[in-house]
Amino acid sequence: MLPLKYQEQLLPEAGCDEAGRGCLAGPVVAAAVILPDDFEHELLDDSKKLSEKQRLILKEYIEKHALAYAVGFVSHQKIDEINILQASFLAMHRALDLLHISPKHIIIDGNRFKKYHNIPHTCIVKGDSKYASIAAASILAKTYRDAHMVEAAQKYPQYGWQSNKGYPTKEHREAIRVYGSTPIHRLSFRLLPE
To answer: What are phi and psi of 29, to 5 degrees?
Structure first.
């Protein structure tokens, strides 16, 4: 379980993270989460270290106990238009826009961020395994994006998105080779190796 730590005592503090940066298809999704002082859950950790079942348990718990949370989506078209890094920042900004509590400080997983209004922020490498609010954001971003890709898999069943979620697995790339790209593939990405 991650201890609930604040980077600054400028509360409330929002943790932000995204999911789907490395995918070949679908949106990039980010979440922003503000947790209360007494938040705890024994499973809470970086979403990549958890099973799908654990993430879904935590999603429900976070949504019930967070002071505020929100999720922002940026489409594959927008990713192609502005690039994946800018799209990741935009998804985080969209999530922050939707919070019903305005944070006094923002902590972000990673080493770069685009300033959000005039709110101070801190970038934390591997923040999703150090700070509870970033871990919570990583879980919401991942579960919302996964659900979106499972739904998309019903329309495009050949690509295995119900299991690979749009990541460049062998199965996914083989399907692109055989069937070509879909309308939700990111055309600015290298869909097949040279």
So the answer is: -125, 135
